[in-house]
Amino acid sequence: MRNTISINRVYLIILQIFLYIYFMELIERVKKILESYYICDECLGRQFHNLIPDMPNKERGKILRKYAQIESSYSNKEYKEKEGEECYLCKNLFDKLDYFAQKVVDEMKDYEYSTFLIGSIIPKDLISREEDFWEEFGIDLCETFKSNFNRNVGIKVKKLCDKNTDFEKPDIMATIDIKNDKCLLQVSPVYIKGSYRKLYPRSGAQKIIINIFEKASKSKEGIFYSIGRLENNVVTSAYRPFIIALKNPKKRNLNLNKLREKLNLKKSIKVSRLSYCRKEDIELMKRDKILASYSIFLKLNKFNKDIKEKLVSLEKKRIIQILKNKIRKPYIRKIRLKFKDNDLEIYIESTVGFSINSFLSGRSKPNLKKLIGRFKVEKIILRKYTKMKTYEMY
Predict the structure, then answer these.
(1) What CA–CA distance (Å, rounded) separates 160 from 311?
(2) Which of 6, 95, 100, 346 could form a disulfide with 296 if both were Cys (CB 3.0 to 4.6 A apart)?
(3) Rounded to whole angstroms, how far apart are CA atoms 30 and 43?
(4) What is the pLDDT of residue 387?
């Protein structure tokens, strides 16, 4: 028992000696810095940030400066701090934190946002001076000017605007260009998903939706995403899913119910199921294996008995379509036919990359014009979308 106590006491003494030596080396390092350069408490504190990371750098700097002064007075060693009016490292930029914070808040005042993040563009001469300083005094405990500056401005902005910081996906990224005295905003897009029906051909449904959302959000641009192709002369009885990305929006909190009602006043479209979503949902929507079902109504020039055989032979086959110099090979899963005199209704189920117009008379191999001769297109209706199972042929 006595041996154990003795060993523990030895360890404690060794630890005390080690801490004393480390502390004295630390104070000597502080004194060397203060004798060589005039630096502010903030910049002194951040040279030793990793000692107590939760303590503000300015407070740490004040404590270390005071310890250096006390230690010198007790040791009777010659010690004189470098005097000056401008911090060698930051050029007194930490005295302007309130100014920069207010500049950020003023720049963001026209935008709706819940979260923000501060970034900065640091002058090259400041970075170079900081790196030379580290070469001279060491970097092991340091925090960079950029990190310290961004955090301190962020704390002040948070108090001024009563908003939260978000390090992953902020609504607004405010970057302070110190040299040019500017604040640059990068506003995250707003993503909204829904579905729509196009009631008339050539009605510009996508443009109508984009225009309504651009005006409501005061955004610079709306980008429309959906599945497959919906050609200009096709109407829909099914609701087609879409996601709209609103770039640089000034308003983020939109009344989606009112926007849906406004869109549905238009005679050419019907919109449903509006809700906010994420950027990742665009990729998820595109990744799904989808079948699109169409009804094509044709007026035949003349009826031939072999038309049915030719068309049904395309079922469960791929056709070649050349669209905008790209070769596509959509898969036709099902074809059903209804004849009445010279009227023909073709029900066709295919993968969503399928182009109806190319199949009717364009650059498809095969296409209807070559298979059945001359005809007039009366109407084309997109009937439904079907999500395929993973094992089904696509």
Answers:
(1) 69
(2) 346
(3) 12
(4) 86
**Which residue's structure tokens are 């998903």?**
193
pLDDT by residue (tens digit) across 103-122? 999 999 999 999 999 999 99
pLDDT exceeds 70 at position 6: no
Q: Over the range 93-114, which residues count as b (16 or more CB within 10 Å of their CB) and which as e?
A: bbeebeebbebbbebbeebbbe
Closest to 363 (Cα-Cα) out of 307, 333, 323: 323
Structural contact between residues 246 and 111, judged by C-beta atoms closer than 8 angstroms: no
Distance separating alpha carbons of residues 394 and 389, to the nearest angstrom: 10
What pLDDT was estimated at residue 21?
Answer: 60
Look at strands 320-323 and 364-365 and give their pairing.
antiparallel
Phi, psi of 352 (to 5 degrees): -70, -15
Query: How many other β-carbons are positioned within 10 Å of the β-carbon of residue 216?
Result: 19
Beta bridge partners of 198: 269
Ordered structural domains, the chain, with CATH: 2-75 (no CATH), 93-187 (3.30.2130.30), 190-286 (3.30.70.2510), 289-387 (3.30.70.3190)
Q: Which residue has the higher pLDDT, 69 or 347?
A: 347
Report the pLDDT averaged over residues 348-356. 89
Q: What is the pLDDT of residue 12?
A: 56
Ramachandran angles phi, psi of 80, nearest 5°:
-140, 120
> Mean pLDDT across the chain, nearest whole number?
91
pTM attached to this predicted model = 0.85
Residue the block writes with tokens 């109504």: 297
Q: Are strands 343-351 and 290-300 parallel, antiparallel or unpaired?
A: antiparallel
Amino acid at residue number 202? R
| Of the candidates 30, 33, 49, the residue with the CA atom closest to the CA atom of residue 133 | 33
- The answer to whether residue 75 scores a pLDDT higher than 90 is no
β-bridge partners, 276: 192
Structure tokens at 56: 């503000």
Peptide bond connecting 170 to the previous residue in cis, omega within 30 degrees of 0: no
Q: Which of 63-67, 97-101, 175-179 has the lowest mean pLDDT?
A: 63-67
Contacts made by residues 376-379, CB under 8 angstroms, sequence distance 24+? 376/298, 376/299, 376/301, 377/233, 377/296, 377/297, 377/298, 378/297, 378/298, 378/299, 378/343, 379/235, 379/295, 379/296, 379/297
What does the pLDDT read at residue 299? 94
